[in-house]
Design a protein that fits this description.
By secondary structure, this protein is of the alpha+beta class. It has helices at residues 8-20, 33-40, 44-56, 71-76, 95-103, 128-136, and strands spanning 27-30, 60-63, 66-69, 84-90, 109-112, 119-123, 141-148.
Length: 154
């Protein structure tokens, strides 16, 4: 594997950018504007008017072949920038079925983890109660621990 090594100014610049950065929740969509216009049933020109409005309001950033939904845009959709975390322990014999059921819930991400818990679920705070109630009825789920984030520290 060929690993690129940064030295000198590029490395200093990258570090400076990193130290000045703020963690952000964003979603990246890689798509062509023609596809979006077609899905919405509008012209590319009309799509560009709507994209420009979203960009001016700080809801999205655009680039060649991609659109980034910013924290502000996610908040307008009801997706929390400060999510809730749910750790669960699942019976080993029922793990695969339980994971399939969990993926049907309104969750943002699901991670299999090693340690005293089996999975980490990331969910928007507005959906936390709904997800916790649903998890209680998933066969094989033995332990549920939930944590609510209050703010991003860095």
């Amino acid at each position: 594997m060929n690993k690129e090594v940064l030295t000198g100014r590029p490395l200093k610049l990258l570090y400076l950018l990193y130290t000045r950065s703020k963690p952000a929740t964003a979603c990246v969509v890689q798509t062509k504007q023609a596809e979006l216009a077609n899905q919405l049933g509008i012209s590319r020109q009309a799509l560009n008017v709507h994209l420009r409005k979203l960009k001016e309001q700080g809801c999205i950033r655009t680039g060649r072949g991609f659109i980034v939904i910013t924290e502000k845009g996610l908040a307008l959709l009801g997706v929390s920038a400060n999510p809730a975390f749910i750790f669960i322990r699942v019976s080993p014999l029922k793990r695969q079925r339980a994971y399939r059921e969990i993926l049907e819930l309104p969750v943002q991400r699901v991670f299999q983890v090693a340690g005293d818990m089996d999975a980490l679920i990331i969910v928007g705070q507005k959906k936390l109660d709904e997800v916790l109630q649903s998890l209680a009825s998933v066969e094989g789920v033995q332990t549920i621990k939930s944590y609510i984030t209050t703010q991003t520290v860095k």
